C-alpha cells in the first residue's frame, strides 16, 4: 500500500507547515505540499502528504476524510499515480491521436465538405 495521500478541497489559508502538523499526529510525515498556482501564487485548494508508513497513512485517511476545516469539507484519499496527458493531435508512444472534435476533418461542413 502506498503512503502518499491526496488532500482536496483545502481552504486557501492552509500552508505546507499547517498541513504537515495536522497529519503528524497520525505518524511520521516525510513531506507535505500544498499545490500553488504558478502565476498568482495562490493555493490551488489541494495538496499531497507523504507518510513514513502505510499504516500511518491509512489512519490519517480514516480520521480526516470528511472533516470540516474552516468551513470546507476536505477529501482525503490515497494518491493515484499521475496519468500521462497527450494533447489531441500530438504524438505518443502509441502513435498519433486524432482530435476528439467531430466537426474537424474532411466531409463535415465548411471548406471542402458537405454544405
From TrEMBL:
InterPro entries: Nucleotide-bd_a/b_plait_sf, RBD_domain_sf, RRM_dom, SLIRP/GR-RBP-like. This is RNA-binding protein. Transmembrane segments: none annotated. Residues 86-115 are annotated as: Disordered. Pfam families: RRM_1. Keywords: RNA-binding. PROSITE patterns: RRM. Residues 3-81 form the RRM domain.
Amino acid at each position: 500500500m502506498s503512503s502518499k495521500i491526496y488532500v482536496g478541497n483545502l481552504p486557501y489559508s492552509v500552508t505546507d507547515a499547517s498541513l504537515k502538523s495536522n497529519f503528524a499526529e497520525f505518524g511520521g510525515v516525510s513531506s507535505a505540499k500544498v499545490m500553488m498556482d504558478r502565476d498568482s501564487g495562490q493555493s490551488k485548494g489541494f495538496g499531497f502528504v507523504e507518510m513514513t508508513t502505510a499504516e500511518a497513512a491509512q489512519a490519517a485517511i480514516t480520521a480526516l476524510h470528511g472533516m470540516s476545516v474552516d468551513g470546507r469539507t476536505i477529501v482525503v484519499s490515497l494518491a493515484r499515480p499521475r496519468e500521462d496527458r497527450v494533447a489531441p493531435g500530438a504524438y505518443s508512444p502509441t502513435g498519433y491521436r486524432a482530435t476528439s472534435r467531430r466537426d474537424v476533418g474532411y466531409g463535415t461542413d465548411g471548406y471542402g465538405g458537405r454544405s
